[in-house]
């Protein structure tokens, strides 16, 4: 395959689809000049001018899109090499040592260089390497050599020693390394010597594993794995069995105002910040809050507050399901009035009326109950819409199957070719995207404080929602009392309209978040 | 690890243990090259002075890349890191094992663990552990929280 060497591709949003190998190749070229590791902020255009794309016009990004690159294993490997090779002349030590230093400092070049320049020897020793040690090599012909692991000795033994002075025969070393590599370790493998802090460098490991191609491959995999895990600007695609790594330089500090949605080459759309499925337009912190709220059942207690009262004596929770106001607690047998909560002894024979209703204490109790009832209703309003779109998104996936049947049927009942009925699946794709956006838009709305800006947002939201529902109906029942041509025209028009509404909502929220247009409440 | 290398190493350790044993450590018997029994005697002027214990060593095929399985058998010392089923909570027997450690070295470590003990008592949650633990202590996920031994 010709794009084996190429690794990084600038990928755009769904309308561009799963980018072809060719345009990724092209993008690799200018990738090097479009950013610099050291100045994320500048690169990202974090100033007041907002969210201007820094890439060439060929690569126009939408305001809600972020720049990112999808790398395959080769690409990730090249990426590491590039970072290492760039630093070798700066530190002017061997590549082996530079590599370990970089890995040991989580690839934070700046702080590493600073530390290194102030005390090179200590930095190298702290990382488990030795400043002036010769490059590791396999030795033989030493009369005095004894392997401390298997006690083999004599001049015919082949062995390897690190800068720490511990030497072991290659058989033992390879067995030792194999075990560690299969445990998932790579550059953190230490010398087998007792309490020895020396690291088995990559050069030594490659030398030893030269005859074990499978283990060596696993070793290299582990190295790449730790590279992606250690760097903040890299993450793995969370899709099962997907092996692509994503590079994105939106700094963590910006995740409150930018939703860093990335699209992996495998088709998965997810948030670079929290690795959850795409949750545009709600930013990560609101998503986390919302899911916590849904999970920890805080609303159960709200329900209890709204629907029950506590026995004033033993605090047992009581739900009144009928009968008069004269309550007798099942638990402690305390008698009280359901209406004013006062002891029943003050009420005499007024079973269905409480003339103490206007006392201050009973007023306060009722106030707090109605307040929590209002909170609950507000939550349920947003939650029902959120979960409704979640359900509909699942149904949309099922719709895809019926749509395929519909498409076949259309081809049979009319003169349309396969390509001419693709509009249906395009409509379903659009629907799915809108459902996901709408779902999370309710989370955003739930936390927004009510003001005019929120009204504008809600208008956009309801426009998109209505358009989506209409399109959904059309797609579910395309040829209901219509000719196929009419249906096609209608659906294409509606899909286009929905797309406009969808883009409007996304653009508006992306800009709004950048401008701090909304205030969020707890 | 080839079995030839393993045999060589074990034989070498065995000879060393027989010929030049450390004080308070003596080889009791070897059923086979895979299972050894080593007697250790409590060090003078410690809580375990004049007490005798037996350690069982089981070597897997991966020894010395992997640690041997070491347990007390018979008379189990009362010690906060030794469970009443003979399992020993000692880091070098599990995560911190390195192939250059020897039977000798392990015995010394265990002796020093016993010697530094200040109060003879069972480990916390001993009852829970011995109910749940498998036959081999190597199947336990150990947490080493005491840095003093």
Automatic annotation (TrEMBL), chain A:
EC code: 2.3.2.31
Domain RING-type: 143-358, 147-192
Top EC class for this record: transferase
Sequence segments annotated as region (Disordered): 1-42
A molecular-function term among this protein's GO annotations: ubiquitin protein ligase activity
Record keyword Zinc-finger present: yes
UniProt biased composition (Acidic residues): 22-42
CDD domains per record: BRcat_RBR_ANKIB1 (cd20346), Rcat_RBR_HHARI-like (cd20356), RING-HC_RBR_TRIAD1 (cd16773)
UniProt-listed GO biological process terms: protein ubiquitination
Segments crossing the lipid bilayer: none
Enzymatic reactions: [E2 ubiquitin-conjugating enzyme]-S-ubiquitinyl-L-cysteine + [acceptor protein]-L-lysine = [E2 ubiquitin-conjugating enzyme]-L-cysteine + [acceptor protein]-N(6)-ubiquitinyl-L-lysine
Name recorded for this polypeptide: RBR-type E3 ubiquitin transferase
Organism expressing this protein natively: Linderina pennispora
Taxonomic lineage of the native organism: Eukaryota, Fungi, Fungi incertae sedis, Zoopagomycota, Kickxellomycotina
From TrEMBL, chain B:
Keywords: ATP-binding, Nucleotide-binding, Transferase, Ubl conjugation pathway
Active site: 89
Single GO MF descriptor: ATP binding
Gene3D superfamilies noted in UniProt: Ubiquitin Conjugating Enzyme
Keyword ATP-binding in record: yes
Domain UBC core: 5-149
Pfam families, alphabetized: UQ_con (PF00179)
Superkingdom per UniProt: Eukaryota
Family: Belongs to the ubiquitin-conjugating enzyme family.
Name of the protein in question: Ubiquitin-conjugating enzyme
Organism taxonomic ancestry: Eukaryota, Fungi, Fungi incertae sedis, Zoopagomycota, Kickxellomycotina
């Amino acid at each position: 395959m010709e794009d084996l060497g190429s690794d990084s591709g600038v990928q755009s949003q769904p309308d561009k689809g799963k980018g072809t190998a060719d345009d990724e190749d092209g993008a690799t070229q200018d990738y090097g000049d479009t950013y610099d590791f050291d100045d994320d902020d500048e690169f990202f255009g974090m100033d007041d001018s907002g969210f201007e794309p820094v890439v060439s016009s060929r690569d126009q990004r939408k305001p809600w899109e972020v720049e990112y690159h999808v790398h395959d294993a080769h690409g990730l490997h090249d990426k590491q090499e590039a970072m290492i090779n760039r630093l070798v002349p700066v530190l002017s030590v061997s590549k082996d040592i530079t590599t370990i230093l970089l890995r040991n400092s989580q690839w934070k070049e700046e702080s590493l260089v600073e530390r290194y320049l102030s005390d090179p020897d200590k930095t190298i020793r702290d990382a488990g390497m030795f400043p002036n040690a010769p490059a590791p090599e396999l030795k033989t012909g030493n009369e005095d050599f004894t392997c401390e692991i298997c006690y083999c000795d004599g001049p015919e033994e082949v062995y390897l020693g690190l800068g720490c002075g511990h030497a072991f025969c290659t058989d033992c070393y390879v067995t030792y390394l194999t075990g560690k590599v299969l445990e998932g370790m790579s550059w953190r493998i230490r010398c087998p010597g007792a309490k020895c802090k020396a690291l088995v460098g990559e050069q030594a490991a490659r030398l030893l594993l030269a005859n074990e191609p499978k283990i060596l491959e696993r070793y290299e995999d582990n190295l790449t794995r730790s590279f992606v895990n250690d760097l903040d600007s890299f993450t793995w695609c969370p899709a099962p069995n997907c092996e692509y790594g994503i590079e994105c330089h939106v700094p963590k500090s910006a995740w409150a105002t930018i939703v860093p949605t990335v699209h992996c080459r495998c088709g998965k759309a997810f948030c670079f910040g929290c690795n959850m499925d795409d949750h545009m337009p709600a930013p990560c912190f609101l998503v986390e809050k919302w899911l916590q709220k849904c999970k920890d059942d805080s609303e159960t207690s709200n329900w209890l507050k709204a629907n029950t009262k506590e026995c004033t004596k033993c605090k047992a929770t009581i739900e009144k399901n009928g009968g008069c106001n004269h309550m007798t607690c099942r638990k402690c047998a305390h008698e009280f009035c359901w209406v004013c909560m006062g002891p029943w002894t003050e009420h005499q024979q007024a079973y269905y009326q409480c003339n103490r209703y206007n006392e201050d204490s009973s007023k306060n109790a009722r106030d707090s109950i109605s307040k929590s009832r209002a909170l609950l209703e507000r939550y349920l309003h947003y939650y029902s819409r959120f979960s409704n779109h979640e359900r509909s998104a699942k149904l949309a996936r099922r719709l895809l199957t019926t749509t395929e049947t519909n498409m076949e049927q259309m081809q049979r009942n009319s003169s349309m070719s396969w390509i001419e009925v693709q509009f249906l699946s395009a409509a379903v794709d659009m629907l799915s995207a809108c459902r996901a956006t709408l779902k999370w838009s309710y989370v955003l709305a739930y936390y927004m404080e009510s003001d005019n800006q929120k009204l504008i947002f809600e208008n956009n939201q309801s426009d998109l929602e209505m358009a989506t529902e209409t399109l959904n109906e059309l797609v579910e029942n395309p040829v209901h009392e219509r000719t196929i041509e009419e249906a096609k025209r209608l659906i294409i028009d509606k899909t286009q309209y929905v797309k406009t509404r969808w883009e409007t909502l996304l653009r508006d929220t992306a800009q709004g978040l950048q401008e701090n247009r909304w205030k969020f409440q707890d | 690890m080839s079995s030839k290398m393993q045999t060589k190493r074990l034989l070498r350790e065995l000879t060393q243990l027989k010929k030049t044993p450390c004080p308070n450590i003596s080889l009791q018997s070897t059923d086979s090259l895979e299972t050894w029994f080593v007697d250790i005697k409590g060090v003078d002027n410690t809580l375990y002075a004049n007490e005798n214990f037996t350690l069982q060593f089981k070597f897997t095929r991966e020894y010395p890349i992997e640690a041997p399985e070491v347990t007390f058998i018979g008379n189990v010392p009362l010690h906060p890191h030794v469970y009443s089923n003979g399992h020993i909570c000692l880091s070098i027997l599990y995560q911190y094992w390195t192939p250059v450690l020897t039977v000798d070295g392990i015995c010394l470590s265990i002796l020093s663990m016993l010697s530094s003990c200040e109060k003879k008592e069972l480990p916390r949650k001993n009852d829970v552990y011995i109910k749940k633990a498998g036959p081999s202590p190597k199947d336990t996920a150990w947490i080493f929280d005491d840095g003093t031994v």
